[in-house]
């Protein structure tokens, strides 16, 4: 991504030039890219398969449950980010206590909020219960993925990402393909997600703890989780509002459109995965390179949606949805803008910025108010409002990130000379 070679010529005190590091990062980057393609591919297959096996109302329910699961699972992403940033700065500290706290709090919140969502969004009790089990398993997995990411053990991280995706989405795909319907798909996904945790623990073997490394603070996990929650709430709010304000057929069409949004949002996530440890260690130029790569990927996806919108809608939902192809650029552009926001939010968390999620919550509140009062309750109306919200959010978050500066962590970094394991693991990618 343009920053891999920086590590090979790093002149900071305590960092030794090591020939071959660039090649190691290159191989690891390819592995994480392939894992990301696999993850997003499986996530894409779930609603696509659902569109072919479920009625429009059930398809909308599946898309809504996936959105709720993504929002509930942000605690796992926040845990992963916090662990990765802490390890990149300070070495291999213990993470058991903040993990247990994060999982416990998540389970308690889900127990309170999911029944309310079931009533308000017309979802069944078994469906939300199974979603809760699946979500808790995904949250717990964030610990082991974060340790691998912060240690820059990217090949094993790629394997962990693939395993979690196979558990999270593979089970649902199997349930749908076997005719289990909505409940059967969620049951299969919950079981496989729990089983995959044991494999992640085994994958992370050999990452010994540093007894003098500072313990990861719970506040760091809360900050990262809050920022990630705000990111997903603002990016998924349109789908939830479409479920609330549109009739079943129209909300099903909107659910198909959000497949394009999610594709544009998550397709370039590998850039952020590779960049995050370097952002945490104050590597200059990484943020600029990440934004350029993510922006280029988003522009390409928007162009493709503009030129072949009918094909994109047909691939996402089936032939009956191709007539809505003119809306494809709206959904793709929204996802592309939020992909940039995701990079910026990670940069702000890595730089220990205060209240990194504040502009996202403000944008969400504005979007909710506008949709409830002035936005036309049509697919095009809500999609256009979502695009405008994404553009404003990207501009505001970008301005705050530039003013804050991404290159100066608020807490002192651990001297590289006392924690050489990161560099060794990066070099020995063949052993990962």
UniProtKB/TrEMBL annotation:
**Subcellular location field:** Cell membrane
Composition bias type Basic and acidic residues, residue spans = 422-432
Q: Annotated region Disordered: where? A: 404-432
The annotated topology with respect to the bilayer is:
Multi-pass membrane protein
> Where would one find the signal peptide in this protein?
none
Enumerate the transmembrane spans: 22-45, 65-88, 100-121, 127-145, 157-178, 184-201, 221-242, 254-277, 289-315, 327-346, 358-375, 381-402
Read off the lineage from the record: Bacteria, Bacillati, Actinomycetota, Actinomycetes, Micromonosporales
Say where the protein is mainly found: membrane
Q: Per UniProt, which keywords does this protein have?
A: Cell membrane, Membrane, Transmembrane, Transmembrane helix
Quote the protein name from its UniProt record.
Answer: Polysaccharide biosynthesis protein
- Where along the chain is composition biased (Low complexity)? 404-421
Residue ranges of coiled coil = none
